[in-house]
Amino acid sequence: TAGDRNLWIVKPTNNNRGNGIRVCKSLQAVDEHLRRKPPGTQVVVQKYMERPLLYKGRKFDLRVLVLVDNNMQVYVYRDAYCRTSTTEYDLDNVQDLFIHLTNYAVQKKKKKKPRER
Fold first, then answer.
1. DSSP type of residue 22
2. Is-contact 36 20, C-beta < 8 A?
3. 57 backbone dihedrals φ, ψ, rounded to 5°
4. pTM more than 0.85
5. Are 76 and 66 contacting, i.e. CB atoms less than 8 angstroms apart?
6. What residue spans of 54-103 are helical by DSSP H?
7. Of 28, 45, 59, 114, which residue is most buried, by most CB within 10 angstroms?
């Protein structure tokens, strides 16, 4: 569910691969973040789900390809995949995107510690 900590996620509309995403601890922090952006910058601001379903203590998402044709016939591609974050979920650390994003382009940048290899 959404939660009660008042966390928000800000996503730019013109970026991908996790670029420019920020988790903010309050609407005031969102406002301060947006005031530093150039006028006209477009973003999506969403309430952050603070109590997500976790897999082995980490955030995840499922990628399933679906096609809906003009007749509203639904086709689901049988092969799907799961993306996970590399770091265990921790709401006290909203700055660490390795915790909060499952995007491969973000996760591949994490340096492995010797015991993680």
1. E
2. no
3. 80, 5
4. no
5. yes
6. 97-100
7. 59
Q: Are 83 and 63 contacting, i.e. CB atoms less than 8 angstroms apart?
A: yes
Q: How many residues does the chain have?
A: 117
How far apart CA 100 and CA 95 sit, in angstroms, is 9
**pLDDT-derived band at 114, boundaries 50, 70, 90:** low
Q: How far apart are the first and last CA of the chain?
A: 34
Question: Can you tell me the distance from the alpha carbon of 3 to that of 22, in angstroms, rounded to the nearest whole number?
Answer: 18
Kindly report, residue by residue over 74-105, the tens digit of the pLDDT: 999 999 999 999 999 999 898 888 888 888 77
Other Cβ atoms less than 10 A from the Cβ of 19: the count is 12
Number of H-type helices and E-type strands within the chain: 3, 7
Q: Tell me which residue has tokens 């399933």.
A: 64
